[in-house]
Specification:
single chain, 197 residues, alpha+beta, five-stranded mixed beta sheet, two-stranded antiparallel ribbon, 6 helices, 28% helix, elongated
Length: 197
């Protein structure tokens, strides 16, 4: 990992929006001299993820004010933020660039990316992602196995709902169905099912 810029917080991947307040950011907990007043919408639901402070720093402000970061899937890297279509998620999860952060949303209604605020990933083998309002720890070897099972099942005609609870007629593929049942309570499996074609 030579010559990799160290990113301490998710919001550093985003361009700053310069403010005028000095203090401690309620989102990331870092000190700033270019922060903004705390003005959160009435629809803000992530109060439990906030920290003690008196402003929103110039980086977190950018992250909070652009509603696309709440509504869409994205990956943040040293090259910037890339919005992802559903079919682009698994390739990024299987071979992420370092450092990175990934947010995936089915609902587009939460600020679940705030779970990642101080969890920038520097490993391709074990890392965190945010999925709606859940923080998920991913082991890439397990993810690879899950993706293989999901893709095989889809090629055999399994509906996405079958990837949670295979129908009786599908039990001719007993080994595959047993793997699905073993995975189905794992939050990583939910991400795989959401993203697989």
């Amino acid at each position: 990992m030579k010559n990799i810029k160290y990113i301490a917080r998710l919001s550093e991947f985003f361009e700053p929006t310069i403010g005028y307040l000095s203090g401690k950011c309620i989102i990331c907990g870092f000190d700033t001299k270019k922060g903004h007043k705390i003005e959160l919408s009435d629809n803000f639901t992530a109060w439990s993820l906030l920290q003690e402070g008196n402003c929103i720093c110039e980086y977190c402000y950018t992250l909070l004010k652009n509603q696309d970061y709440r509504r869409r899937n994205w990956i943040a890297t040293l090259n910037g933020v890339e919005f992802l279509k559903r079919h682009e998620i698994l390739p990024k999860l299987l071979d992420p660039p370092i450092p990175f952060a990934i947010y995936i949303t089915k609902t587009g209604k939460k600020q679940g990316f705030l779970h990642l605020i101080n969890r920038v990933n520097y490993s391709k083998d074990r890392y965190f992602i945010a999925f709606d309002n859940e923080l998920i720890h991913v082991y890439r070897k397990t993810l690879e196995e899950m993706v293989k099972v999901a893709e095989q099942a889809r090629k055999l005609g399994f509906a996405k709902s079958d990837l949670y609870d295979p129908k009786v007629k599908l039990w001719k593929y007993q080994d595959l169905c047993e793997k699905i049942l073993r995975f189905r309570n794992n939050p990583v499996w939910e991400v795989v099912v959401y993203a697989v074609k």
